Amino acid sequence: MLELRSVTAGYARNEPAFDDVSLTVAPGEAVGLVGPSGCGKSTLARVAALLHRPDSGTVILGGEPVRHWRHRAPRAQRTAFGVVFQQPRLSADPRLTLGDLIEEPLRATGRRETAQERVAELAGTVGLTQDLLGRRPHEVSDGQLQRACLARALTLRPRWLICDEMTAMLDASTTAALVAVVESYRSATGAGLLAVGHDRTLLERWCDHTVRWENLTASPTPGNSL
């Protein structure tokens, strides 16, 4: 179980992006979180993925409270998450080829010996041809780069996927293709999913159930939960 309990988080002292929010995602469950731009959804996604330390509250992963964040978190917790962000060009090192981008988590965790086989497997999964793997981000489209970013998120076979506006910059066909990849992965592994976005129709079709941001933040009772 991935749980956020009464979490408050932001980037400036005394100016939280959101306050006293609780959210639960069960193993194998797909939860959609829908809300307008600027409401704090992306900050919540970063907290859930252990990329941003909350100001208060607790994140619980597999029954254990999370005590450290980002590179200080234990490897087992860090690698339990695969994250795909809205803007692939901001989340991809422009110096890396797409193949290197997909391989990056393997290098970071000392698993180079399996890299070539794993990169080829994932490239096929997300619909990238071999010639694209040698190109850098500025040489490919947003959709091709986002395919590589999704492949990178899947490289270490995470137990949880966090998709933060993953399809916001993509056309309908690429959106459908990437959602299909995520669902195929979840079906095969039982991974849980938190999909964040503002397209309620997409999230309701994609996820087991959705929650509106205002239902997390507007309740007069503490610990607004899903």
UniProtKB/TrEMBL annotation:
GO molecular function ontology, one term from the record: ATP binding
Entries under InterPro entries matching the protein: AAA+_ATPase (IPR003593), ABC_transp_ATP-bind (IPR050319), ABC_transporter-like_ATP-bd (IPR003439), P-loop_NTPase (IPR027417)
UniProt entry keywords in alphabetical sequence: ATP-binding, Nucleotide-binding, Transport
Domain of life: Bacteria
Domain ABC transporter: 2-226
SMART domains cross-referenced by the UniProt entry: AAA
Name under which the protein is recorded: ATP-binding cassette domain-containing protein
